[in-house]
């Protein structure tokens, strides 16, 4: 199987929105603070158009099978880095999982960040999502901070 990685196109928005829906469905069991009904995490068209972001898709035989984005965010004044790349919108169609799609997308997004002289790449993953956590550990990420909450 040949996996190609390329920039997403605005004309592919329907596929990208279905991927976003897939991400939300997968994350609902980990987060009871998400609203019921249709929600959106991302403004995908804005990300595609942005000079400070890169939205990628993975294709197999011209079929879009995965996605991810990197965007440049400002670091905190107390951090060593003034800017960093934040990764999100990581999705792979179920029938293409465990075949290296996500790894190729992550690798290409990290290269995008390096090309912009960034030295830090971050992402968020639900602590209970062991499959995603293991994929990111395999890609070289390390846990940094666990956000904790209580409903009152």
From TrEMBL:
Residue ranges of domain N-acetyltransferase in the record: 3-152
Signal peptide: none
UniProt xrefs under InterPro entries: Acyl_CoA_acyltransferase, GNAT_dom
A molecular-function term among this protein's GO annotations: acyltransferase activity, transferring groups other than amino-acyl groups
The keyword RNA-binding belongs to this UniProt entry's keyword annotation: no
Swiss-Prot/TrEMBL keywords: Acyltransferase, Transferase
Pfam families: Acetyltransf_1
Database matches in PANTHER family: N-ACETYLTRANSFERASE, UPF0039 PROTEIN C11D3.02C
Protein name (record): Acetyltransferase (GNAT) family protein
């Amino acid at each position: 199987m040949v996996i190609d990685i390329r920039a997403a196109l605005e004309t592919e928005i329907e596929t990208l929105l279905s991927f976003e829906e897939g991400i939300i469905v997968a994350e609902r069991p980990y987060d009871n603070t998400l609203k019921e009904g249709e929600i959106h995490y991302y403004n995908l068209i804005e990300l595609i158009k942005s000079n400070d972001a890169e939205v990628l898709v993975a294709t197999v035989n011209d079929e879009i099978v995965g996605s991810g984005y990197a965007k440049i965010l400002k670091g905190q004044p107390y951090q060593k880095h003034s800017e960093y790349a934040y990764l999100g919108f990581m999705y792979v169609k179920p029938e293409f999982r465990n075949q290296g799609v996500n790894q190729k997308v992550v690798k290409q997004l990290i290269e995008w960040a390096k090309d912009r002289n960034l030295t830090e790449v971050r992402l968020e993953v639900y602590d209970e999502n062991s499959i995603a956590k293991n994929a990111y550990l395999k890609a070289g990420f390390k846990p940094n901070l666990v956000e904790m909450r209580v409903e009152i």
